[in-house]
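Before going further, learn to read the protein records used in this course. A complete example follows; check for yourself that the lines match position by position.
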Amino acid sequence: MMANQLEQRHAQLRPSLIIKYLALATTLFLCFTSNLKAATCPELTENIRSDGKKTIIEIYVQGLIEMKPPSWILARPPYTSPEEALINRCSSNKSATTISDPLPERLNIFAHKSKAERSGAFIAVSAVDQKMAIQRIGPYWHAYSTTFPDLRFVGSSVRIAYGLVTLNPNIRTSRDLVGKRIGLVMRPSSIRALQEIVLLKSWDIYDQITIKEYSPTAMASALDRNEVDVMFMPVARMSNDQLRPMQLDLERSDLNWISLSVQDVVEATDNSPVLTERVTLPASSRNPNHDGIGLITFDVAWFTFASTPDDIVTEFVSTAQHACSPRHPNCKVKTITSLLRWPQLKAEQIHPGALKFYRDKGVEFSQ
């Protein structure tokens, strides 16, 4: 009798205990996710729109296409940028989506859109393309369909350094390139425009070389297969304010370089739409051939249009500062210096919302 009463009593307690345990687990989960969000999300202004709808943020990037064949592009899933992922995870009043498209198409789609339709779009634009897009200038194979005078700088995203590397120790200067096979990024691309500017304006040898075209990711292997005499390729990427090797093992003792001088870069950018800077190859403990080797930068930054509201832009700069690609697990919060790393940047080129962000961080801009 007593046993039956105890069993009935336990049966009555089980549902209430289960409910209590579930409530406790839910509370712990909510506390954990709240703390996680606080630890990993930037400070976002959660201004609720009067109509209760979310503000749409469109992010236009190159994505991970990297000039693969069309069948490969069609087969891959949609690309999600780190900025989209961060906004959709951290913001309750904004919704972001990523559109992958190369330049100049990435901007040409806005050619006939109104100011209101351009608002809220953030476009990855290279330093090669900034002036081309604003003034509608550049080569015929990289043409903009209209001018974009309302394009405004938001914050720098990527800096990659390109250099000319060879396995032939007898190729040392630009004059040694005459008659040689030179590997370039395939047309049409912003990188190719930068490479041609150097070969045309700095060295005047474009019509005296044999050009072989590659995607950026195929260049290192083509060099090793002796398909070219010299490869004009990406060799370092700015990460946490330091240039770090990419594509090649820069410690290899068989690598030789054709250095770009300060004057080479000046001649490339003089009376040219291309914006670029000279940097030097990261030091090598095993390869003395690296000392003082000049490289040329290919920079990419976030731009938006003047019609995008200031508060949206201010918040996007914070997003860009904190966004990290899963392909770069050692990524850190970007410094203000890195966000403003852009050739010949002037205050009047920066969106007012971005200017507010930088001034709040203590940055002073000369008039």
Summary: The chain has two domains: 55-157+300-360, 160-297.
